[in-house]
Fold:
Amino acid sequence: MKITNICCLGAGYVGGPTMSVLAQKCPHIKVTVVDLNEKRIATWNDVDLNKLPIYEPGLAQVVSEARGRNLFFSTDVDAAIDEAQMIFISVNTPTKTFGVGKGMAADLKYIELCARQIAKISKDNKIIVEKSTLPVRTAEALKTILDVTGNGVKFQILSNPEFLAEGTAVNDLHSPDRVLIGGGEDTEGQNAIAALVEVYNNWVPKENILTTRVWSSELSKLTANAFLAQRVSSINAISVLCEQTGADVDEVAKAIGMDSRIGSKFLKASVGFGGSCFQKDILNLVYICRHYNLQETADYWLQVVKMNDYQEHRFAKNIMTTLFNTVSSKKIAFLGWAFKKDTNDTRESAAIYVADELLQDRAEIHVYDPKVNTEQVYADLEYLQANRIGDFVEKGDFLNSEEIRSLVTVHKDPYNALAGAHAIAILTEWDEFKTYDWQNIYDNMLKPAFLFDGRNILEKDTLEKIGFNLYSIGKGV
Ligand code: UDX
Ligand code: UDX
Structure:
């Protein structure tokens, strides 16, 4: 089947950029991205490209090239499903916060809703592509819903996990290390795979397009994220030891990374990994292992998440103990709130967990992030209060919305956030933080001037010469 019409359900961090690049690279295919969220679609359609709902370097240019030509953003879900030959599902799959699998399993309610909607609307055969990260064997569940509730039309289900990282999404989509497509082993399944391979082959060389059976593809996505997260937790585990022994974790990372068998990427010690995927996907993996009674495998991977919680917790605790065991009514300035630089995404950001712990002691937190808006910061803290899932989050007092708003201030100007602070904490590695006038910042804060660099981005010697008491991750004295 030659594909000329694609629709994507979900205009989020994955669906939006992925479909924009697909449309840019395939001008002969009409691509419609639909979402239930009207506001989100309106901002995707805004003439001012600075207002796109997602901040991602290079994205505005891609959108401006394809939007209105063969790329469309719409809330008319039914019409888009009806005319598409191929439908990508890219809705979110959050960790369940209630019921069976609470705090572990993926909540598939949106996926199920999509399947039912597709089944209801479709009048001709379609290829369904799972883009969302899903537990292994979700394709089977999707197929059951589609086949039973559909109008007798035939559906092929493919798994095509997304490996883009936020902040570098456009580049990752333009030149992916590999594209992974899983599908059925029968003729119809192979034909569906071939149709999707042809779409990607418009810009990705054939040798970088990997085809597998559907469950291998689903499991590969979870495994890739588990391995990446595991590297971060491994180096973070070593960072604690470095602090005790007088080693420097960045030196250790460099030394081991030069071993080509280990490789140098994902060895940056930090306050902890965040993002919508790592924790969620590992918890998913753990849940599946437990389902199959594979307790040892489950425990092995769960430890990666526990290590990350510990890293966030010990960063917060270090601030507390260094500030003479109390942060109550003290001004703590946060540089960064996003889970990494070059994105406005804050999901599972270490900043949220560190802030939450300091708020337990009623610290006054002043946040500056170049791309995160004020309401997002409050929403993140409120969400955490309402959804303390798993065994990992420190069980603390419940703070209501008014209390949070009275203790947390979000600034548009970094120097205002920093002025008069008892301590500064760097939570995100934004490049601009390195270029600040640190002498001026030092002059305008309380002494001793404590600075906690959760991303190891500042020059230790320079900052200490100015007079800061600098605490970096994994740097023993
Ligand atoms: C993605 C993947 O889908 C998820 O599985 C992966 O683990 C993380 O990344 P992402 O694009 O980041 O999700 O999520 P989000 O930015 O929340 O976007 C999802 C969109 O789907 C939202 O805009 C939401 O409004 C929309 N949606 C959700 C629908 O249109 N219909 C629904 O039924 C549910
Ligand atoms: C990740 C995967 O990389 C991507 O392939 C998948 O599609 C989605 O999940 P993302 O979460 O967007 O992407 O960002 P990533 O660059 O992987 O960073 C995740 C977290 O780990 C961030 O908080 C980052 O700061 C942290 N990290 C990463 C470290 O602390 N140290 C490192 O060396 C690398």
User: Anything to note?
Assistant: The first strand starts at residue 5 and ends at 9. DSSP finds 18 helices and 14 strands in the chain. The mean pLDDT is 94.
